[in-house]
Amino acid sequence: MGKPLPLELRQRVVAYVDEGHGHREAARHFRVSPRFVNNLIKLRRQTGSLEARRQVHVGGGKLEPHAEFVRLRLAEVGELTLDELCVELEGRGVSVHRSNVGRLLNRLGLSHKKNSAGQRAAAG
């Protein structure tokens, strides 16, 4: 996700529109998209503020309900490859790519990196 535009720019755009200029004209003048101007005016009407809304990612994907299972399996066995975890998840009815499992492990703070001796590091 990108960063929100500065509050000062938001105020200047709204002031320009309040002076009687159109949304598209304001977009050209400030070199922003017409959609940004439309959304900004809509935001002010709804909230009374020009502060950017918090950007959040809702949900955790289809692996989130299985996160505890993955954590427990790695605690029990210690060393499982991403492919082995994919097979175990397939047995639970979840078909995912190994990259998704890798991202889940990163979110859980677990690592599958090898140590300096070339051995697989213990999970957890």
Automatic annotation (TrEMBL):
InterPro entries: Homeodomain-like_sf (IPR009057), InsJ-like_HTH (IPR055247), WH-like_DNA-bd_sf (IPR036388). The lineage of its organism: Bacteria, Pseudomonadati, Pseudomonadota, Alphaproteobacteria, Hyphomicrobiales. It holds the Pfam family HTH_28. It comes from Mesorhizobium caraganae. Residues 10-49 form the Insertion element IS150 protein InsJ-like helix-turn-helix domain. This is Helix-turn-helix domain-containing protein. Gene3D superfamilies: Winged helix-like DNA-binding domain superfamily/Winged helix DNA-binding domain. It comes from the Bacteria.
